[in-house]
Amino acid sequence: MISSDVEKNIVTAFYQELDKLSGNEELILKWETGKVLCKFITCFDDFDDENEDDEFTSFVFRCDNLEGQPPIEFGDDNEFVINYHNFPIEITIDGKLISKSKSKKGKVLQLVN
Fold first, then answer.
1. Would you put residue 104 in left (φ > 0), alpha (ψ -120 to 50) or beta?
2. What pLDDT, in 10s, does the model give residues 20-74?
3. Parallel, antiparallel, or unpaired for β 90-93 and 107-111?
4. Distance between CA atoms of 34 and 108, rounded to whole angstroms?
5. How far apart are CA 98 and CA 3, in angstroms?
6. What are the helix and strand counts (H, E) for the chain?
7. What is the rounded CA–CA span in Å between residue 88 and residue 82?
8. What gap in Å lies between CA 38 and CA 91, rounded to an integer?
9. DSSP secondary structure of 62-76
10. Distance (Å, rounded) from C-alpha 13 to C-alpha 49?
11. Distance of CA 99 to the CA centre of its chain
């Protein structure tokens, strides 16, 4: 569920691809500080612990390969979560560019897909 206009502008292109994913596709998530080769696992409704009014969708992935230092933290089994707060500037699924954004210091300004 996309909750805010800010989140909508950032995650919509990827969100629309979710129904097409089986979990076996290779995704490349790129940030200015690094990239991750991964597989999509699931998504869930989430909120900011410090601001419960900030509701959003979080996406869970399993990392297969890491380059650089993207803004993610790993949990069990090399799993990590992204949402509109740390969304990548580019997402590729099985070699197909799904979304690309302009950014400034890690904040997405505009999607250019």
1. beta
2. 988 899 999 999 999 999 999 999 989 888 887 788 889 999 999 999 999 999 9
3. unpaired
4. 15
5. 21
6. 1, 7
7. 8
8. 11
9. EEEEEEE--S--B-G
10. 26
11. 10
